[in-house]
Amino acid sequence: MLSHYHTAIDPGGENNSHASMLRMVGFNKRVLETGCASGHVSEQLRAQGCQVIGVEVDARVAEAATPWLERLVVGDVESDALWGQLDGDSFDAILFGDVLEHLKDPLGALRSAVKHLSPSGVVVISVPNIAHADVKLALMRGSFPYSESGLLDKTHIHFLTKESLLDLLRGAGLVAVELQRVTVPVFATEIGVDRGDISDEVLEALTEDRESLTYQFVVKAVRDDGARALDELSTDMIALTDQLVDARKSIEVLSQELAVLQGQHDWDEKEIARLLRQTNAVKRLIPGPLRRLLGKRFADN
What we know:
- The chain is of the alpha/beta class.
- It folds into 2 domains: 209 residues, Vaccinia Virus protein VP39 (Rossmann fold, 3-Layer(aba) Sandwich), CATH 3.40.50.150; 45 residues.
- It contains 10 helices and 7 strands.
- Strands 3-2-1-4-5-7-6 form a 7-stranded mixed β-sheet, with helices on both faces.
- The relative contact order is 0.10.
């Protein structure tokens, strides 16, 4: 039985949360994958030489993942009993791929996970961004359309932004060392907002938000060892990713302006050519002596 979240994965794909998580985990690691479902990520981790212990609350769904797992632990990631089954286990990477938003207490689950993190280990997380422009536009028309999957998956309990995600990490004793964004254009998500319902002014105001196109955040975090240098590194890293997003938006705006100017230039050239043709046609209608006289007058001036 495959999970309805099961999907084919291209490990080399761009703008893809699964590919980003796989890269952040790396090769030949001992991995704890929470919410392994039917194994679409587990299979790729195994292909990267990783040893994977999977955690899944639905035993029927997880059965399909067992070929890729060293061990399957069935249970609730928010349960002390589940973590008790992992006593003595330590991991190079702990993966929460689209899991935290489904939990009643994501902070508690993260804190439990960190206890099983090796000293140099990483926690890799992906979560949807509730601040995507399509969600805001839906709210403006009084709608919050739950769906089977996506930004407003009907099983989501927590809704996160970049800031609330970083706060969650800090609360669990973690700091982000890498942040990636998966982007989807406005009006292109499963929410189904209609462009015709939105004025240009409202759309422009909403898309000024840096995260207006961010569909998912993918973050790699490490233990906060209390060193100021690590905290500053994390802060600088987040600032640099924000600047990169801003720079890309500026480049996009400049590209659009350039396209407009290029269109105007092309129109001007066509208009000049048209006027030259009209001028030459008029010249041919002027008698020769008068044309020579006019030419001499223009030359004298």
